[in-house]
Amino acid sequence: MKKILIIHTGGTISMLENKDTGEVNSAEKHPLSDITNQAKLTAEIDERILFDLPSPQITPQHMLTLSKEVENALPNYDGCVITHGTDTLEETAFFLDMVVQTNKPIILTGAMRSSNEIGSDALYNLLSSIRVALEEDAREKGVLVVMNDEIHTAESVTKTSTSNVATFQSPQFGPIGIITKDKIIFHRTRLARSTRKVSSISCDVFLLKAYAGMNEQLIKAVHQAKPDGIVLEALGQGNLPKEMIPSLKAIIDDQIPVVLVSRSFKGNVQPTYGYEGGGKQLYEMGVIFADGLSGPKARIKLLIALEKTKDMELLKNMF
Ligand code: ASP
Q1: Largest CB tally within 10 Å, which of 26, 42, 188, 219?
Q2: pTM, rounded to two decimals
Q3: CATH class of segment(s) 2-186
Q4: 205-318: same fold as 2-186?
Q5: Are the C-beta atoms of 271 and 309 separated by less than 8 Å?
Q6: Do residues 282 and 271 touch, judged by C-beta distance below 8 A?
Q7: Cα(24) to centroid of ligand 1, in Å?
Q8: Domain locations in the chain?
């Protein structure tokens, strides 16, 4: 019989609704513990509570601890299911996807409605995740996110709605698979991923979003804070208001890497436009273009990359 490890980290899937106040908060006992008694499973299940945190309190240090826990446990299991708050689930999923070297399934799941709310998706998502973790086809796919009968890759998935149970979507390519009553169906495979093992996360990377009329005030303030790196969610194909350019250049001259993604949630950034503030000028200035990643995920990637090197050229190659 296959063996699956469930690691709980908190979030709504670990919480209960107070029926008097309507408030949703952590429960004394995990509402989904003892899963084997709640559903007929043809697998041996072990469970661990690693953290009990709402996911806005999850940091890259927690992600690192979780990655080590998964790495140490995996030799004894056929797969791993991690329950997590949905707010930062995509960042944790991507972190694990970047650092954990395995061909076994690692599934992240959460819930939009806690276990005692009407229409709760908590138990359902957990059971779906275990089913996917048991599936042979789920191997070699990197870290997957299972919610609402869909399977998404860590790289492409994002939370799109604040409250709808169909919140997790992959805007660029759609889900990699679906879950039906009796089948797990993958529509496609995944290109080989390369992982980078890290033993610490020691750098500080800021994330900024560009907007019409943005000037150099914010970028100057960020420079003064001396971060180890900056991710900029630029406009369209990778353009910025021209007023930001002198301060941005000063940051790059100071050897602080600036990684560019788009605030559009589909498509890639590319050095197309030659006007002042256009992508071509940014590229020639030494801004690093990150293909197809969201701002939060590019930030995770830069945090991991900075553990390997601070060299601008090598960082550029990693993206
Ligand atoms: N705020 C919650 C969290 O991320 C939302 C959820 O879990 O769905 O912890």
Answers
A1: 219
A2: 0.96
A3: alpha beta
A4: yes
A5: no
A6: yes
A7: 10
A8: 2-186, 205-318
Architecture of domain 205-318: 3-Layer(aba) Sandwich (3.40)
- What phi and psi values does residue 133 have, to the nearest 5 degrees? -60, -25
Q: In testing the pocket of ligand 1, which one of 8, 9, 12, 113 has its CB within 8 Å of the most ligand atoms?
A: 12
- pLDDT tens for the chain, 319 residues long, are 999 999 999 999 999 888 889 898 888 788 887 776 667 778 999 999 999 999 999 999 999 999 999 999 999 999 999 999 999 999 999 999 999 999 999 999 999 999 899 999 999 999 999 999 999 999 999 999 999 999 999 999 999 999 999 999 999 999 999 999 999 999 999 888 889 999 999 999 999 999 999 999 999 999 999 999 999 999 999 999 999 999 999 999 999 999 999 999 999 999 999 999 999 999 999 999 998 899 999 999 999 999 999 999 999 999 9
Q: How far apart are CA 246 and CA 216, in angstroms?
A: 8
CA 17, CA 157: separation in Å to the nearest integer? Answer: 27
Q: Which atom of ligand 1 is nearest to the CA of 10?
A: 9
Q: State in Å: Cα 54 to ligand 1 middle.
A: 6
Q: How far is Cα 163 from Cα 161, in angstroms, rounded to an integer?
A: 6
